[in-house]
Specification:
By secondary structure, the protein is an alpha/beta fold. The protein folds into 3 domains: about 140 residues, Rossmann fold; about 140 residues, Alpha-Beta Plaits (2-Layer Sandwich); about 230 residues, TIM Barrel (Alpha-Beta Barrel). The chain is built from 23 helices and 21 strands. The protein has an 8-stranded mixed β-barrel, surrounded by 4 helices. It has a 5-stranded parallel β-sheet with strand order 2-1-3-4-5, sandwiched between helices. It has a 5-stranded mixed β-sheet with strand order 7-8-6-11-12, sandwiched between helices. The protein is rod-shaped and about 140 Å long. The chain binds ligand C2E and calcium ion (CA) (2 copies).
Length: about 575
């Protein structure tokens, strides 16, 4: 006996026949066979109610009965039970085709003809019960599967709105919530909390440390959550707090509270980790799409860490301009909108110009003159600096070569070219510059490159390789904006530096600030110790110049002696002292 056959014995069977003898006969037969749940009914009108109550697994149904015949009864049962209709075997004496046909079309499973043959009755009943129990089993399995799938879907739905690392609501959940508030025209304040230091933690101490840090940050922020606030994770380094309750309160004050959470370091794997945080704030009265709102909050992020800023339309305008300026910049070389100017560097002992710094100028058809302070950072971020930088090198060397051959400048006149970090990070930068210097027939000593400290720090090894190669060829290396970057003098020892350009922020208050004087003095004496020359930038007043000369600065550059000049102006001034009273 297989599994389904054994389940047959527990099956509930209902016998319906108006003749009690028939009912009894079948009952005895079935009981002898081992069936235990048998119910006999002789009143066809009671059947429907009993079937609904007892849910038999099989009905043996007489066709011919007074008041309600088997076919009619079956129709009724089908109507009230539908898919739950148990299988039916008709008990019949007649075997006329018409009755059979009607019964089958109603869904009858089989027929038993009176008088009953014991063997046949048992076999047919067993067949139907087995088939039915298989069907039930499949149905149960299908139902179970459906339930499991439904549960899993609910779980996945939940997970798809959750950040896996912190279990906080993720980007999708935040956007959905903002969509909801918009539909309800509910005012909200969005705080975009941008954290710097997680990536560094991952690099320095490993992923598990970074993960722990992320969780600690989430915990601290969570403490600031109240009422209907929603704190979520926007990206690997950005959290978002949506505030619906304090919308009339002071967002600035709240962001200060949030910032304060980061004053203390985080303890991760028995290490103290510090992170830096800034916050962008965006308000909405339910009139911004979630995407707009998040964009506003991201745009509002201030430049400086430890600060917060609220979104304002001007921020957007500035961005739109910089996007358009950036686009225009891509055409600048092809449209011949670029030119060079040259700002003299003057020897403080002789008063003569000994060289000049090459400064790029852009006269855009669309924006007129654009300051390099605006377009150089754009070119750096978009990669156009490589093309621009090559153009500058090409033009500057071309000029110097021409000036030298026409003797428009003295033999030892040199040009300093600004080189950005991205240029320096090209592997063949030094080789190509060297080749060009040779091609233009210029002694390498007459060329200097100016690099900023921050540029060097991007990839110290690469920068050091490139600069060493240039230095071996004879090219001078100047550290630009000295004092504004890392100001670690130790790295200077490792680099082939020949010039320090003291940033103009130290020169500006030189004649008023004793502290700045001391600083500049220290830098200059230390530079002397290392064998570097010093150039002071941004000298605008006689008093500054006088002080610098006394302190022992070698060269100065600034509006006081000369602004950046075009070629002809430079030639006119290069053979006479720029500041004759200096010459003693
Ligand atoms: P920088 O290398 O520090 O160049 C000196 C800047 O100070 C120039 O600004 C110059 O015009 C300005 N300046 C000169 N004397 C004075 C003064 O007495 N007072 C004040 N307040 N400013 C003075 P500019 O030409 O606007 O250039 C700005 C920056 O753009 C440069 O700063 C440099 O970092 C970058 N830059 C300019 N040309 C190039 C280039 O060809 N390549 C690269 N990569 N960067 C360039
Ligand atoms: Ca410079
Ligand atoms: Ca500078």
């Amino acid at each position: 006996m297989n599994v389904t056959a054994s389940t047959c014995m527990t099956a509930a069977i209902m016998i319906v026949d108006d003749n009690p003898v028939n009912v009894q006969l079948l009952q005895v037969l079935l009981e002898d066979e081992g069936y235990r749940k048998i119910e006999g009914i002789t009143q066809p009108l009671q059947v429907e109610q009993r079937v609904i109550e007892n849910r038999p697994d099989l009905i043996l149904l007489d066709v011919r009965m007074p008041r309600l015949n088997g076919l009619e009864l079956m129709k009724r049962l089908m109507q009230s039970l539908g898919a739950d209709m148990p299988p039916v075997i008709f008990l019949t004496a007649q075997i006329d085709e018409d009755t059979r046909h009607q019964a089958l079309s109603l869904g009858a499973h089989d027929f038993l003809t009176k008088p009953f043959n014991h063997q046949e009755v048992m076999q047919r009943i067993r067949n139907i019960l087995q088939r039915n129990s298989l069907k039930m089993e499949y149905r149960a399995r299908a139902e179970l599967m459906e339930t499991l799938v439904r549960q899993r879907t609910v779980e996945l739905e939940k997970l798809s709105r959750q950040d896996p690392a912190t279990a906080l609501p993720n980007r999708r959940a935040l956007l959905e919530m903002l969509q909801q508030t918009r539909q309800n025209r509910q005012p909200v304040v969005v705080y975009m909390i941008s954290v710097q230091g997680v990536e560094q933690a991952a690099m320095l101490h490993g992923l598990s440390a970074a993960e722990e840090l992320v969780n600690l940050i989430s915990e601290r922020l969570n403490r600031q959550v109240n009422g209907s606030d929603l704190l979520g994770v926007w990206s690997s380094s950005d959290w978002v707090l949506v505030d619906q309750s304090q919308v009339n309160g002071d967002a600035e004050q709240r962001s200060q509270q949030l910032l304060q959470q980061f004053n203390k370091p985080f303890w991760v794997q028995s290490r103290q980790l510090h992170v830096q945080v800034k916050i962008g704030i965006a308000h909405s009265r339910g009139d911004h799409s979630p995407e707009q709102l998040m964009r506003m909050a991201a745009l509002a992020l201030p430049e400086q860490q430890g600060r917060s800023r609220e979104y304002a339309l001007e921020i957007d305008h500035a961005l739109t301009r910089s996007g358009r300026v950036h686009e225009a910049l891509k055409q600048a070389v092809a449209r011949r909108e670029l030119s060079l100017m040259f700002q003299p560097k003057v020897d403080l002992n002789s008063g003569y110009m000994v060289g000049a710094e090459v400064l790029l100028r852009w006269n855009s058809a669309e924006f007129s003159w654009v300051s390099p302070a605006e377009f150089i950072p754009l070119a750096e971020s978009g990669g156009e600096i490589i093309e621009l930088g090559n153009w500058v090198i090409q033009q500057a060397l071309g000029c110097l070569s021409r000036w030298r051959s026409k003797r428009l400048v003295p033999e030892d006149f040199s040009l300093a070219i600004n080189v950005s970090a991205n240029q320096l990070m090209q592997e063949d930068f030094a080789i190509r510059l060297e080749e060009q210097i040779v091609r233009f027939g210029i002694p390498a000593e007459r060329v200097e490159v100016e690099v900023t400290e921050s540029g060097l720090m991007k990839n110290m090894q690469m920068a050091s390789d490139q600069l060493s190669q240039l230095n071996r060829a004879g090219v001078g290396i100047a550290i630009d904006d000295f004092g504004t970057g890392y100001s670690s003098l130790s790295y200077l020892k490792a680099l082939p530096v020949s010039v320090l350009k003291i940033d103009r922020s130290f020169v500006r208050e030189l004649h008023n600030s004793l502290q700045d004087q001391r600083l500049v003095e220290t830098v200059i004496s230390m530079a002397g110790h290392f064998g570097f020359k010093t150039v002071a930038e941004g000298v605008e007043q006689a008093a500054q110049l006088e002080l610098l000369r006394r302190i022992g600065c070698h060269l100065i550059q600034g509006y006081f002696l000369s602004p950046p000049l075009v070629e002809d102006e430079l030639h006119n001034r290069v053979f006479t002292p720029l500041y004759s009273s200096l010459v003693s």
